[in-house]
Amino acid sequence: MSPSAPAPSESDKAPNRKVQDRRLESAQAPDTGRERIGRLIEVDRLLGYLAGPQRQEFAYPGASYVKLHFGKLTMLPGDYVTVSNPAGTESYRYESDADGRWAMSITGDTAIVEVHRKVNPLGLGDVLGGLSVGVDRVARGDERRKAPAGPGREESVCGTDTSTDAVCYQSKDPVAYTKSKAIARLLINGTELCTGWRVGAKNRMITNNHCLTTSAEAYDTEVWFNYQCAKCGGFDVFKPTKVWGDQVLATDKTYDYTLFTVDGFESVQKFGYLTLDTARPKKGQQLYVPQHPAGEPARIAGSQGEAAGNCEVDNPDYTGYAPRSDVSYFCDTAGGSSGSPVISRATNKVVALHHFGGCPNSGVRGDLLAGRLRTYL
Predict the structure, then answer these.
(1) Under a CB-based contact definition with an 8 Å cutoff, are residues 338 and 186 in contact?
(2) 197 and 267 both lie in a single domain
(3) Which of 35, 116, 177, 344 has the greatest number of C-beta atoms within 10 Å?
(4) Which parts of this chain are annotated as the region Disordered (predicted)?
(5) Does 159 map to a domain?
């Protein structure tokens, strides 16, 4: 099967107002193989031009992030909206072309929306009365540490989970730690998760086909780099660098990959990239897997010197969606790890794209992907 390349497409509190939020009845999405992380909430919030508040707060105590959807964004040229956290340390700007789009998520439980206007020209009262900014949906994150592994072909912890925070490798295994910086947490449609990573030096990201398939999906996917704990075993995390997915370049269901670009590539180049291993994986080859299991800050499975039989190639001819398409292993993963790189300790190159669980877990062979994606990389 040759790769297909789709055509690019493009507290909840209000001042002096009581608003009734309603969870969307369709919030429970069909089983896509992605990890569910949050909830969708339907709202009806309007920021006016001539009357009404021009700054509103969306607060959801305990939420790990708040993400807003613009149902209406009709403004005069030069006017814009910001969505920020209360301290203003995370802020994103939007103009009228963001109408109907999701805003970038705000880390934490509160997002502030504010309209920024030029001085109103005289005689435009009627025109201004028809302008407004409306928020019609909110996605709030309900993250949890250590989500239980599911049955069947979901990602799985095999025995005792020996994966640890990526930062724990900083001194004892600096190569693995450095390589882990090339991975990213993918927040898809506001409430679902996978893992992706930079493949090659160009503006190229890869994840599973069951995570996203089209440019329209990539366009609404947040790509978080440097989402990791600040210290080993701690709970404080570094401020992630967030960019949007952009264009899908190639995707394939049988080999379960999607290659895509990001908008704002220059801001994530510093995190480095990984390379696909063109050699056929061998049984017993030692591995490590940087990932975002259950959407957690970056973790790595496969400690240096770990007992043989856990994070190593178990079967280099494992059957995935096609005979002999996969490599199997017992490296620990969890929901949200889909799309993670499985890296050889001998070469520090990617020998598999993780996508299945069940102990053994498995990933699509890197040498097969290298052949299929050569023209794109």
Answers:
(1) no
(2) yes
(3) 35
(4) 1-35
(5) no
Residues 107 and 243 grouped into a single domain: no
**pTM of the entire structure?**
0.84
Segment 103-114, tens digit of pLDDT: 999 999 999 999
Task: Express each pLDDT in 135-165 by its tens digit.
Answer: 999 999 986 544 333 333 445 566 555 678 8
Distances 354 to 75, 102, 216, 280, 328 between C-alpha atoms, Å = 44, 28, 23, 16, 9
Do residues 137 and 169 both lie within one domain?
no
Distance CA 180, CA 300 (A): 8
| Residue listed under structure tokens 């890869």 | 206
Assess if residue 1 is contained within a domain: no
Q: Which domain holds residue 314?
A: 164-376
Identify whether 360 is preceded by a cis peptide bond (ω within 30 of 0). yes
Residue 204 pairs with which residues in a beta bridge?
Answer: none
Structural domain ending residue among the three candidates 110, 141, 172: 141
Buried b (16+ CB within 10 A) or exposed e, 262-301: beeeeebeebebbbbbeeebeeebbbbbbbbbbbbbbbbb
